[in-house]
Amino acid sequence: MSNFVAVKTGNIKNRKYHTIQDYIRKRIQTGKYPVGSYLPSENEICGQFGTTRTTVRKALDELLKEGFIEKEQGKGSKVLERRKSLGLLTVKGFSGSIDYKVKTVVTKGPKITEWNPVIAFSLTEEEKKSNCVYFQRVRYINDRPVVLENNWYASNELQLIDSDAFIEGSFFKTLSQNHFIEVMGAEQELRSIPASKEVAKNLGIQEGSPILHISVRFRTSKPGLNLYGDLYCNTTDYPIRNSYFL
Amino acid sequence: MSNFVAVKTGNIKNRKYHTIQDYIRKRIQTGKYPVGSYLPSENEICGQFGTTRTTVRKALDELLKEGFIEKEQGKGSKVLERRKSLGLLTVKGFSGSIDYKVKTVVTKGPKITEWNPVIAFSLTEEEKKSNCVYFQRVRYINDRPVVLENNWYASNELQLIDSDAFIEGSFFKTLSQNHFIEVMGAEQELRSIPASKEVAKNLGIQEGSPILHISVRFRTSKPGLNLYGDLYCNTTDYPIRNSYFL
DNA sequence: AAGTGGTCTAGACCACGCG
DNA sequence: GCGTGGTCTAGACCACTTT
Q1: pTM of the entire structure?
Q2: Do residue B242 and residue A188 have CB atoms under 8 angstroms apart?
Q3: Quick one: which of A136, A209, A244, B196 could link to A87 by a disulfide (CB 3.0–4.6 Å)?
Q4: What is the DSSP code (8-state) at residue A164?
Q5: Which of B120, B186, B194 sits opposite A243 (nearest CB)?
Q6: Cβ neighbours of B67 in A, within 8 Å
Q7: Does residue B16 sit in the same domain as residue B113?
Q8: Which of A79, A105, A132 is the last residue of a domain?
Q9: How far is the CA of A59 from the C1' of D2 (A)?
Q10: pLDDT tens-digit profile of A193-216?
């Protein structure tokens, strides 16, 4: 009898494992499966959705790839703190180390403006037609400014989010928990350049000293929504780190 | 009856999908499944190994993650050109674009020396005890020197490979095809620094102009073997690119 | 129509972690 | 010893691509 259910499963775009995957992801994003806790066992999930372990495991495998959970044999599937950053460039000391005091200050915006021409990537037609939301942040380590960061996104794709609403100062965390939007990938261009007068002033360094400039486009799970960034990093004391595993 | 076979499958460390995965990977590395060709169909592989599609698909899934193949629904599993570079930093234009003429020249070694203290990562005890193989390369784009690259690895882990033996000038390709060693991941530190006299001379630029310095440790599938790198990049005309997807 | 990969069922035994 | 995730069998139907 339950085979009739099976017949229904192969339907157009109604993949059962997607349903399970989306359900669990949303519960993680809204904190109903808190960070550090364990998901219900695979067999329990089978019961909840009337399916088999093969299908449940496929859903969990996807969440594993997305970085929401990790698996511990003999124990269960644990909800992870943050998404595992795969290849994301991070300032040494940012996120993780306790030896550093980290602070982020929003110095401009968010406000609606025209696109800024410094962006190293070509905008889509839809983005060109739209205005954009812009904001600027300065990141501090041990009370010294280390990164000056400009960000833009198309204002027709996402409302202006006030900086007061940033969860723990993080724009991405806000996107995930309040809008269910996730970062799917990114492209970056890195250059070594002399510091301009404005950058030098913001980072408290000499004009012309070597600065790492990063231009980045983040792609998100919301089609058409990209986040563009323009970062100026003083790497003298805190180099940029990037680790990845296959 | 055939269930008795199932009983045997769960054995210690003899995962059937690993056997299949290793077999296919080795055939790809040695060119028996040439780049661009299609693997035998999943059902054929089932026949060859006396197993079911679930197991074969698990093996192919792993090869997919490792970047050796891609899947095309309705057609088959295709052998990929190179391993998909996940988060690897590459000079814009290197590997892929036809607009650039790329050349690599080995300027020093390979030869056996002492470890160089510039390496930003701490060596393992085994590495400290061993001498190391060192070589230096300069990478050109359109006949202009763009990257000066120093490399080291522990000489007790891998014999000295003569630069003449580098397949297409690539050390990693040589490792894969002749030694079945793959890169499993890497850690990198990036800094923006003024060019030293030696770097300036090698890259044909002014002493003191901003240079991107990358210190990298590649981890390989051979336990204990790491490859260390020390790169100086002139990013004025060719920025460094880094893209990744989840 | 035939062949390929994608999804799914309904079981089974194994290795691991913990009380 | 029991529950958890890890591996595997032996089938089935679906969607996509090509002949």
Answers
A1: 0.84
A2: yes
A3: A244
A4: G
A5: B186
A6: 246
A7: no
A8: A79
A9: 25
A10: 999 999 999 999 999 999 999 999
B125 plus B182 within the same structural domain: yes
pLDDT in tens, A113-157: 988 877 888 888 888 888 999 999 998 888 899 999 999 999 988
Beta bridge partners of A228: A152, A217
Between CA A163 and CA A183 the distance in angstroms is 19
The total of structural domains in chain B comes to 2
Nearest by CB to residue A194, choosing from B186, B187, B210, is B210
pLDDT of A215: 92
Q: Do A242 and B183 touch (CB under 8 A)?
A: no
**Does residue B160 sit within a domain?**
yes
Is residue B246 domain-resident?
no
Q: At what angle do helices A53-66 and A42-49 cross, to 10 degrees?
A: 110
Q: Which domain holds residue A182?
A: 90-241
Q: What burial class does residue A2 get, using C-beta atoms within 10 Å of its C-beta: 0-12 exposed, 13-18 middle, 19+ buried?
A: exposed
Q: Is residue A21 part of a domain?
A: yes
Cβ neighbour number for residue B173 with a 10 Å cutoff: 15
* CB contact (8 A) between residue B211 and residue A212: no
